[in-house]
Amino acid sequence: MRAGICTGVTKIFTFHCDVDWMKRLNIAGIVMGRHIMFAVPADQISSWLFRHELQHAYQQIEHGRFRFYAKYFYYSLRYGLRNNPYEIEAYARQSIPLTESEETALWKLREDSQK
To answer: CB of 50 within 8 A of CB of 39?
Structure first.
């Protein structure tokens, strides 16, 4: 099922790399609306960071955008960012190897950034 979801993510979301404002705020990666953004250039995105942000995209698809963000902010206020259940899930999954389709998406992102 993850392969199908990843294909959906690459069709639904736009990837952005080397985002200056994220560097200034020391944010490695973030999902905002239909955008998955990274502070580093595409060739420096680690598989664990890519997996972590993909997990947030999967959560958004699973729960719906509005519900995901409402619960994400509620959990962050109530439990703190590190104890936010969405973050706990993303951290737990970031060590899982990328699926073939996720690996392909990361390589495509790296190739497209070099053009």
So the answer is: no
Instruction: Give residue-wise pLDDT tens across range 57-73.
Output: 999 999 999 999 999 99
Which pTM was predicted?
0.88
**d(Cα 80, Cα 74) in Å, to the nearest integer?**
9
- Tell me the C-alpha distance between 37 and 18, whole Å: 8
Domain spans of the chain? Answer: 2-110
Residue in 109, 102, 108, 103 with CA at minimum distance from that of residue 8: 102
Provide CB contacts within 8 A for 76, sequence distance 6+: 84
Close Cβ partners of 40 (under 8 Å, ≥ 6 residues apart): 17, 18, 28
